[in-house]
Every structure is written in C-alpha cells, then in structure tokens.
Amino acid sequence: MIEHNVHDASGQLSGYLYQVLSALLLLLESRNPDSQLCIEKFDDVAFVEKDSPQIMIQIKHQLYRQGNLSDTSTDYWRTIKSWCDHIKNNGNFEDTTDFVIITTAKAQDNSIAFYLQNMFSRDWKKALEIMRQVACSNASKTNKNYYDAFKSLDDKQQEDLVKHIYVYDMSPNIGAIKESIMPYVRVITLQPFEERVYEKIVGWWIISAIQCLISEEPVFISYRQLQKKMNDIGSEYKADSLPIDVDPYYQPTDHELDQLPPENRIFIEQLGLIAISNSRLKRCIRDYYNAYRQRSQWVREQLLFINDLEKYENRLVDEWNRLFLIMKEDIEDYGDQLAENQKQIAGRKLFGEIENLSLPIRSNVPDPFIMRGTYHELANRLVVGWHVDFMDRLCELLRG
Question: Most C-beta atoms within 10 A of its C-beta, which of 39, 216, 224, 396?
Fold first, then answer.
C-alpha cells in the first residue's frame, strides 16, 4: 500500500488546477455568447451579468479519497456559510442567483446533497428541512460557525438560498476533465494537432486565470473571448497555416549569438560585403535567429517536414535569382568603371527588394521574419548573396 507524505501538497495543487480547468469547461458548456465568468472573486467561479453574480460555483475535488457529502460535511457547510455571508453582505440580494456545488464525490441517498441535485430526485424543501434540523441539533464544534451563519438568515432568506442550490456530484476528476474539454477542441482543428491545440488553449486559460487572481478588481473572461482565442489557435494548425510560437521581436543576447558556430555567421559577412548599417544588421540578426528557432520547432513538432522546407527554400532561391540577374544586368553597363561602392549600393538595393517580398511559407503565415530569416540561412550556405561578387569574395575569405 502506498503511503502519501503528510507534507504532500499534490492534493491541494490538483484542487486549484481542477478549479481552473472546471471554469474553462463551464464556460465552454454555457454556449451563451453573452456569458462571462470570473475566478476567485465572488466565489471559486462565478458567472456574472452587469457586474453581479448570477451563478456562484464552489468546486470540490478529492485526489486520494472519496469526498464527503454527508449531511454534516464540513466542506458542504463551509460553502453554505460563504453563501450566507454573501446574502448578508448584499442587502439588495434577490433570489435570482443560483448557487452550485460541483464535486467529484457522490451524494448519499436521501441526503441534503441528494435532494439538491438537478434531477428527478430534487426536493429543495426536503433539503431545507434537513439543513434546519442539522443546524439546530448537531453538536459539531467544527461546524458551529457554519451552522450559526445559516441560522442567522431569516426563513425567507434560507428558502431563497436553498431552492437555488444545485449539487452536481460525481464530476470528472482532474485526470478525466480533459476528455470533457476535448470535444470542443476537435471542432476547431485537425486530428493530428488536437493535443497541441489543447495545450495552447489550456496555457492561455491558465494565464487568464492568473490575471483574475492577481487583479484587485474583478476580471471577466467572456464566452466570445474564449471562442475567438480557440478559433485563433485552431486556425494556426491547418494545412495552409502554422503556429508562430516565438516572439518575432526578440533580440538575441550577445551570449546567445556567441553560441552560433562560424558556419551560421556567414550571413553576417554577406551583409558586411554590402556595407549595411549596424542598425539594419541588428534587425537582420534578429530575423535570422527567430526564424531559425521557429523553423526548428515546426520540424521538431512534425508540423513542417524537411521536404516542405526544401520546397519553400527553392521558391525563395528562384525569386532571388530573378532579382540578382536584373542587378547584374544593371551594373554591367558600367563596364570597367564599376567601383566597389557602386557594387555595394546595388547589393543594398537588391537586399531591400528581397526584404520587401511577400513569400510566406504557407498562405496563412504572413509573418515576414520567417521569409527574411530563411534568406539569411540560405546566405549562410552561399546559395544566395547580395554583393555581385559574393561567391568569389566569401570563398576567398573562408579559405583564408
């Protein structure tokens, strides 16, 4: 038998994660374009309308043991106290708010939780009767404050509360909740990409949940916002698209550049041949570095295969060759009078035209740094160049 460390926080951590993932599932299941929720402000999760909670949700998760849904359950009565406090603190409280408990535990037959389920057995009046009996007769010191909070409500307030409580027991635990979310993922992407899309959606959702937690004011996440983000992520994983996971504006540090082997620095020598300015050179290094990282990730995740990359590079080389030949024709008119600075000017003009091309790797990947960085990779291999004599100059330099 496996014994769990008394200091093990995995149960508590799983509860927090379960709460966040449950909020995601709840918003997906709402299917109401006007729905919006917040986390840990009004309750664990709350659906809000006009800054007022319409559904307040408590989420209970047990990792190693079966949760307790008995009539004297401390978890249950702690939740009741929280809702009683909400009612007492809102003098204008109306019986339009629903109170929901979502739990991985099972409601016992003929218990309070049993009578508050949203099904044929629901009998909120019976549940209220039992709650009043328990609150008045049970001697539990642990629950005393919770019972007192319930008894502090007048009869109408108790009725308004209990008739709006709904218990959803035997909910999928944290290990199974993913399968409840996946059907919503499958409608926005292709089967090979389902796992990646799920991970990106959950990643974005966790970041959004953190914003809810650290904000002093309630932060609302709407159904429309969630749907837009899901569609945006799903659209990245299609035949005519690829996800952009790197920051195209990230400027690599000197240490990162020092890690580049000499063969990956030839593109810098290429740019030096046409006397490009330092400020432009920094942008070119940025494009090369970020495009290299993004292409490598695509290949690593099997979103882009080597032959796909070769086909794309062939397109780029063909367009470069057309413009390079035009440049050669233009400068041949100078004959023996052609000076080095004129070669550099012509090379910078060619390079500028190349930078302004629109040759996306896929039709819905318009980010220009991919094309520009790939041209620098080709320049590393001397497949393309900007100076009219780039091949002779660099072969001599590399031999030296």
Answer: 39
What tokens does 351 get?
């390079």
| φ, ψ of residue 168 in degrees (nearest 5) | -115, 100
**Residue 235, amino acid:** S
Structure tokens at 318: 């063909």
Residue where the block lists tokens 């320049």: 379
Whole-number Å distance between alpha carbons of 108 and 114: 6
Q: Hey, is 168 helix, strand or coil?
A: strand
**Residues 171, 198, 223, 85: what is their CA dihedral angle, to the nearest 10 degrees?**
40
The answer to whether residues 170 and 105 touch, using CB atoms and an 8 Å cutoff, is: yes
pTM value is 0.69
Nearest to 368 by CA among 282, 276, 286: 286
Helices (H), the chain: 10-30, 74-89, 112-115, 124-137, 144-151, 155-162, 177-186, 194-214, 223-236, 254-258, 266-273, 278-300, 306-332, 340-355, 368-380, 390-399
- Cα angle, residue 61 at apex, residues 142 and 171 outer, rounded to 5°: 125
φ/ψ of residue 274, rounded to 5: -105, 15
What's the chain's length in residues? Answer: 400
Q: Which residue shows structure tokens 């659209």?
A: 235
Q: Averaged over 89-105, what is the pLDDT?
A: 77
- Two tokens at 393? 């100059």
Q: Hey, how many other C-beta atoms are within 10 angstroms of the C-beta on 149? A: 20
